[in-house]
DNA sequence: GGTGAAATCCTTCCCTT
DNA sequence: AAGGGAAGGATTTCACC
């Protein structure tokens, strides 16, 4: 789907605050709210907008620790290994990557004990992996929701 | 702030779809929409809900490549190094981590040429870093927005 | 936590350019 | 093909119980 500057302006607003009323979006981009509604519908249908999510403070719901985990997968075990990984509680992202690790995942745990149980109790015992490294996130210096949206193409 | 089961139910719904009308949230948790509104306001003010964001397909806005980048920071240069990093276009997350890398960041780029320019043109030339590794994301096997929200505590 | 009412917003249809 | 006006029905919001 081809996007124009108006579409990108809408995306920028909704990525920043997904609950902005269409009437206000309309005001800001100087169009009617019917048009905004129309464009948003098209963007949703085309898969440009995948969904709308509340961003929740992990600490408030009991997650005190997050980590990035690198994994080496044994040849031929890729599919089953990934299928089992996504069942592990706390795993929120699983990426296939180049470099030292075949898989990089992002996990959340209540505390370090929980994280240890997750890594040594669950993942270390799985077939299909032969090495891992846990990079505990000590702090986040910067985190912006979503992707940068260029003002034109 | 102390959360109860009702709060967590609301959070789960809004994390999944931030534009769910409060009237429907109310229906699902069997309360009035005024109460939902009241609770959501308190969750926002307490910082439990940090915001609402549209999830946008990176490919649709021109980002064909994403990567995780590990960096080693020279002692004593931490603050300035991080300050400069967050100015780099395409950088969306910067985490301080234990393990082989001091900093792990997530970047988006148009294509591999763009990513190379970002890494070799911009970051490699900066003071304060002495080693890096770029883990290009070849694919994402699983990605769930936000954090798991337990049904009780 | 709920009710009720006013203000606002969403949505659709239809008309215009 | 794209945008705007208008109108209904739904939703948000706020004062008060």
Automatic annotation (TrEMBL), chains A, B:
<dbReference type="InterPro" id="IPR011008">
    <property type="entry name" value="Dimeric_a/b-barrel"/>
</dbReference>
<dbReference type="InterPro" id="IPR011991">
    <property type="entry name" value="ArsR-like_HTH"/>
</dbReference>
<dbReference type="InterPro" id="IPR036390">
    <property type="entry name" value="WH_DNA-bd_sf"/>
</dbReference>
<dbReference type="Pfam" id="PF01037">
    <property type="entry name" value="AsnC_trans_reg"/>
</dbReference>
<dbReference type="InterPro" id="IPR000485">
    <property type="entry name" value="AsnC-type_HTH_dom"/>
</dbReference>
<dbReference type="GO" id="GO:0005829">
    <property type="term" value="C:cytosol"/>
</dbReference>
<keyword id="KW-0238">DNA-binding</keyword>
<dbReference type="InterPro" id="IPR019888">
    <property type="entry name" value="Tscrpt_reg_AsnC-like"/>
</dbReference>
<dbReference type="Pfam" id="PF13412">
    <property type="entry name" value="HTH_24"/>
</dbReference>
<dbReference type="InterPro" id="IPR036388">
    <property type="entry name" value="WH-like_DNA-bd_sf"/>
</dbReference>
<dbReference type="GO" id="GO:0043565">
    <property type="term" value="F:sequence-specific DNA binding"/>
</dbReference>
<keyword id="KW-0804">Transcription</keyword>
<dbReference type="InterPro" id="IPR019887">
    <property type="entry name" value="Tscrpt_reg_AsnC/Lrp_C"/>
</dbReference>
<keyword id="KW-0805">Transcription regulation</keyword>
<feature type="domain" description="HTH asnC-type">
    <location>
        <begin position="3"/>
        <end position="64"/>
    </location>
</feature>
<dbReference type="GO" id="GO:0043200">
    <property type="term" value="P:response to amino acid"/>
</dbReference>
<protein>
    <submittedName>
        <fullName>Lrp/AsnC family transcriptional regulator</fullName>
    </submittedName>
</protein>
């Amino acid at each position: 789907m081809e996007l124009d500057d108006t579409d990108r302006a809408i995306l920028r607003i909704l990525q920043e605050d997904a609950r902005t009323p269409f009437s206000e979006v309309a005001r800001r981009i100087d169009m009617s709210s019917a048009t905004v509604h129309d464009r948003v519908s098209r963007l949703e249908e085309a898969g440009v907008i995948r969904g709308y999510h509340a961003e929740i403070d992990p600490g408030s719901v009991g997650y005190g620790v997050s980590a990035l985990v690198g994994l080496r997968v044994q040849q031929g075990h890729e599919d089953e290994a990934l299928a089992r990984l996504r069942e592990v509680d706390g795993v929120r992202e699983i990426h296939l990557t180049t470099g030292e690790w075949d898989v990089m995942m992002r996990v959340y745990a209540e505390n370090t004990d929980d994280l240890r149980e997750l890594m040594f109790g669950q993942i270390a015992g799985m077939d299909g992996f032969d090495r891992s490294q846990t990079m505990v996130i000590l702090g986040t210096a910067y985190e912006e929701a979503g992707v940068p949206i260029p003002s034109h193409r």
